[in-house]
Amino acid sequence: MVINNKKSNEKQQVKLHEGTAIRNKDAKEENGRVAVWIKESDLEYEAELKTLQIELMKLQQHMQQSGERILAIFEGRDAAGKGGTIQRIINNLNPRNARVVALTKPNETEQSQWYFQRYIEEFPHAGEIVLFDRSWYNRAMVEPVMGFCTDEQNKRFLKDVPMVEELLVKDGIKLFKFYFSVSREIQKERFDSRKVDPLKQYKLSPVDNLAQEYWDQYSIRKFQMLSETNRSLSPWTIIRSDNKKMARINCMKFILSSMEYPNKLPEKDLNPDPKIIVSGIDELQHMQENLLTPEKLHG
């Protein structure tokens, strides 16, 4: 967004904090205020985001009474928009009953344990929402591509994980498995943005540079992961995330439309966009049809 600096008659690039535009939409002119022009689509996004965040608060309040548990896994390529979506989901929730789990590299003790052990310790208690910013599915994609696990460990994981997820679903945990799908071109744009934006440089990692180089290897591992772990009890939900704002909105809609709670918005207001939300089965079919033409594959 651009505003005019009256003192220097120069134009300045300004980035408004999310939510500022919708809060000040009807503000009146007065001293000390500067008028700015923003896209109508940004206003619509902020208004819808606020509505959905209120719905999430309703859901959380209901869960505290019902004792329901939610475990949401966020996977996908680097710079696909997972972290930004998680942040918008959890922004206004009570932190006593909602938390993000982003585990670091396993230490020596954890490496000697059963692979799933350190994740199971983070599972939700009654009334809690737990969001995994990457999860045990590191062993399905990142670890084999980067050589951080053996081929045998990868194969054993793919056989074991459907059984582990079946156990937790049958125990009553509502499991969401999201895979954020970003195109190769948009991923590169976001990597380049991280290099020049001081507020995004914490996201930079040595793996970023290899994500583009190993693009096709990640596609192969993605196909293998979906083939082995997309089950009726624990299906994958693919989120097209070239447009990060629409990815966030539709991820939230998918969660809300899958849960029951009092004073819920009408179904039509929570229906996700089928161009953004894709089932694991449909993604597998798309990949099978385009395996020989990888340039047509989604990220």
Work out the helix count: 13
Query: Based on CA inertia axes, which overall geometry fits?
Result: globular
Overall number of strands: 8
Helices and strands, in order, run as EEHHEHEHHEHHEHHHEHHEH
| Count of individual domains | 2
* Regions with little confidence, pLDDT below 50 for 5+ residues: none
- Share in helix: 40-55%
Taking the alpha carbons of the first and last residues, their distance comes to 29 Å
Q: Class of the largest domain, according to the CATH hierarchy? A: Alpha Beta
| CATH architecture label of the largest domain | 3-Layer(aba) Sandwich
If you had to describe this structure to a student in words, what would you say it looks like?
The protein has 299 residues and is an alpha/beta fold. The chain folds into 2 domains: 1-38, no CATH class; 41-296, P-loop containing nucleotide triphosphate hydrolases (Rossmann fold). Helix content is 46%, strand content 14%. It has helices at residues 20-23, 40-66, 82-90, 108-111, 117-120, 142-146, 151-170, 184-196, 206-213, 215-229, 244-257, 267-270, 280-290; strands spanning 2-5, 10-13, 69-76, 98-101, 129-133, 173-181, 236-240, 277-279. The protein has a 6-stranded mixed β-sheet, sandwiched between helices. The chain has a two-stranded antiparallel ribbon with strand order 1-2. The longest helix has 27 residues, at 40-66. It starts with a strand and ends in a 9-residue tail after the last helix. The mean pLDDT is 91.
